[in-house]
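User: structure tokens for this one?
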Amino acid sequence: MASGNLTAHPDGLDPDTVERPVFAATIRPHQSLGRTGFRAVMGGCCLVSLVASIWCWRMGFWPVAGFFGLDMLALYVALKVSFRRGRSFEEVMISQIEVLLARVSYRGERREWRFNPLWTKLATVEDEEFGLQRVTLISRREQVVVARDACPDERARVARGIIAALAQVKKGY
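Assistant:
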């Protein structure tokens, strides 16, 4: 029987760590309004609408009151659609052998991109006033925007993590 380390890879890679993520992140869209805020906004708008509707009704402009109701319905629908879209997310995972970007829509539809980390780089577009505007994974001829619905600060954190992980993977080879 031969002596030595039986699990060592000839190239020096440890088989147990090859698929372990060097970087992993879940990125959710920026949501500035929570449930309590939604209730406060809808309550305040409904109160203002009700007072204005009563005033219009008493002044003889009764058709205007109906339009205030339509405005409240439109605001409610718009906020509900925004909350539903807020359930979407992106997952970024970088290991020694793969860069995986998965985008999951609010409907649960999943789309994936897989790249070789040795051929992948990150491109960014930054604005002096508004911060990091775009983060793009580039591998050969394919480009995919990452953290597209995140705020600029979160985009910057994700970009720093991806750059560090890609450098670590490339340094290992």
